[in-house]
Design goal:
The protein has 491 residues and is of the alpha/beta class. It has helices at 16-29, 42-49, 53-65, 81-89, 100-103, 140-149, 156-160, 169-179, 198-209, 224-231, 275-288, 311-314, 343-357, 362-374, 376-402, 427-436, 470-487; strands spanning 69-72, 76-79, 126-127, 192-195, 215-220, 236-243, 246-247, 256-261, 291-295, 321-325, 337-340, 416-420, 439-440, 442-443, 457-461. It folds into 3 domains: 16-89, Arc Repressor Mutant, subunit A; 121-135 and 379-487, Alpha-Beta Complex (Aspartate Aminotransferase, domain 1), CATH 3.90.1150; 139-374, 3-Layer(aba) Sandwich (Aspartate Aminotransferase, domain 2). The mean pLDDT is 90.
C-alpha cells in the first residue's frame, strides 16, 4: 500500500479515531481519495499509523454511517460517488494572498495567435488535422520490443542512468549512420544534440543565439510556434514572403542575425525551396554572418521525384543549423528530435539544456536507437510513406472534385494540403461550420505575420485520418464550403 497523508497528534485531547475520520473526510473532499480506488484497509492503515485496528474501524464506521463511504463485500471500502459533490462543497473557500497576474512575466508574443488543437480530435469522424498521426500506423510491436530490450544488458545502464548533459551514444551513432546520410549530411558525434522535439531545439537556439533588438527573418506565412519562440527572446521578428519556389530572398541579409526556413516542405504551404534559391540563401547568409536554421521536419514524405538535398548538405562552412524530428513519422507524443551544428555551439546548447530538462529520457533514447538498428524503423517508415502517398493522391483528386472552386496542383509532399479558396471565402467560418459536421481542418490566416492576413486559406491534414474516411469527409467539407460561400458568415 502506498503511504497516505494521514497524520495523528497523540498529544491532542481529540480521540485518535476522530482525528483519523476527519483527515480521511478532508482527503476525500480534496480528491486524494476517489471512488475508483478502495481506501486503505483497517489493517494497512493501523500498521502505518501504529494504532490499534479498532481505532481505524471506529473511524470507518462513522464514515459508513454518514454515507460518505461504502463497503463492498470482498472488495473493501470505497468513497461514495454520490457524496463527493457534497464533500467538495463543504471545503472552505479561501482567497489567494498573491496577485499572480502581476507576478507573471510578460512576453512579446502575447498578441500572436496560437495554433489551437482539438483535444479529442480522434473522436471526430473526419480529423483532417496536421501534427497528429494515425495511431494504427505506429509500429507498436517493434517499439514495445525495443523498450523492453533497452531495460536489459547491455542497455540497462544507458537507459536508466543520469547522464547529466550527455546523450545516448548509440542513438547519436544511429542518427549519424542511418538518418543523416539520406539527407546528404555528414556529422561527427560532437556535432549532434538530442532534443525533446524540434521545438526544444528552436528554444535552445533562441536562448543561446538571440537577444533584444536582434533581427530574425521567418517565412511568411510560416511556422507559428517558431515565431512565438523567437519573439520571447526579445528579438525583432519580420516576415519574408513565400511563393511557389519558396522563400523570396531579399537583396541582402545584412543586419539579420538569424533566418529560419523549412526548405524541404515549407510550413504550411508545402512548396519546396528551389535549388537556385538554396544556393543564394547560403551565399547571402555567409556574406552577412547570418545564422541559418533549417527545420527539416518532414523531408521523408516526398511522393514524386527525388528529394532536394538539405541546405546543410550544400553548406561548405558547416554553419547551417539543422533540425530533425521523429515526431512526424513515429509519434508527436514521443517528443524526440535532434540538432546538428558546429561542435562549439552544440557544447553550449548541451549546457543550456542541462539546466532546463537535464537530458531527454535515457530509456526513450536507447529504445529509439534499438528500433533504428533493428531495421524496424526504416521498414515502418517505408510502409508509412506508401500510405501517406496514397492519401496525398486521393486528397489531391478529391479536392478538385469536392471543393466548389478551381484547384491548382499541390506540391508532392508533406503531411497536409494548403488550400487557397476564392477571395470571399471566410476560412475561419468554414473551420467552425465544418467542425459542427465532424470535419476538423485548420484555418490559415494565423500563419501570416501581417496584421490583415488573407482569410481564404486553410490546411487539410492527412496524417491522422483513416484512409477509408477521406472520401466521405471531403464530400462533407465540400458541402460546408458551398454553404459558407452561398450564405456568407454566420450572424
Amino acid at each position: 500500500m502506498p503511504r497516505t497523508l494521514i497524520e495523528i497528534d497523540r498529544s491532542s485531547s481529540e480521540p485518535l479515531y476522530r482525528q483519523v475520520r476527519r483527515v480521511i473526510e478532508h482527503s476525500i473532499a480534496v480528491g486524494i481519495f476517489d471512488s475508483r480506488r478502495r481506501l486503505p484497509s483497517s489493517r494497512e492503515l493501523a500498521a502505518e499509523l501504529k494504532v490499534a485496528r479498532n481505532t481505524i474501524n471506529l473511524a470507518y464506521q462513522e464514515l459508513l454511517t454518514e454515507g460518505l463511504v461504502l463497503s463492498h463485500e470482498r472488495s473493501g471500502i470505497f468513497v461514495n460517488p454520490e457524496m463527493l459533490a457534497a464533500a467538495e462543497a463543504d471545503l472552505p473557500a479561501t482567497d489567494s494572498m498573491i496577485d499572480w497576474s502581476s507576478r507573471m512575466r510578460r512576453y512579446a508574443d502575447e498578441g500572436v495567435p496560437d495554433v489551437e488543437k482539438t483535444a479529442d480530435w480522434y473522436k471526430y469522424p473526419y480529423p483532417f488535422i496536421a501534427g497528429q498521426i494515425d495511431v494504427h500506423s505506429f509500429p507498436a510491436t517493434a517499439w514495445v520490443r525495443s523498450l523492453r530490450e533497452a531495460l536489459y544488458e547491455p542497455h540497462r545502464f544507458a537507459s536508466l542512468q543520469d547522464s547529466i548533459g550527455a546523450d545516448d551514444p548509440m542513438l547519436i551513432e544511429m542518427i549519424r549512420r542511418e538518418i543523416l546520410p539520406a539527407r546528404g549530411i555528414e556529422a561527427k558525434p560532437e556535432q549532434i544534440l538530442i532534443t525533446i522535439g524540434s521545438q526544444q531545439g528552436l528554444d535552445l537556439l533562441g536562448r543561446t543565439l538571440l537577444g533584444p533588438h536582434q533581427r530574425v527573418g521567418i517565412e511568411n506565412p510560416g511556422y507559428l510556434d517558431a515565431r512565438h519562440i523567437f519573439l520571447r527572446t526579445g528579438a525583432q521578428v519580420y516576415g519574408i514572403d513565400v511563393d511557389r519556389d519558396g522563400l523570396q530572398l531579399p537583396d541582402t541579409l545584412s543586419g539579420t542575425a538569424l533566418v529560419y526556413v523549412t526548405p524541404s516542405h515549407h510550413h504550411p504551404t508545402n512548396v519546396t525551396l528551389s535549388m537556385e534559391r538554396r544556393r543564394r540563401l547560403l551565399k547571402l547568409a555567409a556574406a552577412s554572418g547570418t545564422v541559418v536554421i533549417e527545420d527539416d521536419y518532414d523531408s521523408e514524405f516526398r511522393y514524386e521525384g527525388s528529394p532536394s538535398p538539405a541546405l546543410k548538405a550544400l553548406d561548405s562552412t558547416g554553419d547551417v543549423l539543422y533540425l530533425g524530428t521523429f515526431s512526424k513519422f513515429l509519434s508527436p507524443g514521443l517528443r524526440l528530435g535532434f540538432l546538428v551544428g558546429p561542435a562549439e555551439l552544440i557544447q553550449e546548447l548541451r549546457r543550456v539544456r542541462r539546466y532546463q530538462v537535464r537530458h531527454p529520457p535515457g530509456h526513450m533514447q536507447r529504445a529509439l536507437a534499438l528500433l533504428i538498428d533493428s531495421g524496424d524503423y526504416h521498414r515502418a517508415l517505408r510502409h508509412h510513406r506508401r500510405q501517406m502517398k496514397a492519401r496525398w493522391e486521393m486528397l489531391s483528386q478529391l479536392s478538385v472534385q469536392c471543393l466548389p472552386w478551381d484547384q491548382t496542383t499541390y506540391p508532392p509532399g508533406g503531411v497536409s494540403l494548403w488550400v487557397e479558396g476564392p477571395a470571399n471565402l471566410d476560412a475561419a467560418e468554414l473551420v467552425r461550420r465544418a467542425a459542427e459536421r465532424g470535419v476538423l481542418i485548420e484555418r490559415g490566416d494565423i500563419y501570416y505575420i501581417q496584421g490583415d492576413p488573407p482569410r481564404n486559406c486553410f490546411r487539410i491534414g492527412y496524417g491522422a485520418i483513416p484512409t477509408r474516411a477521406i472520401a466521405e469527409g471531403m464530400a462533407v467539407l465540400g458541402e460546408v464550403a458551398r454553404s459558407v460561400l452561398d450564405e456568407g458568415p454566420a450572424a
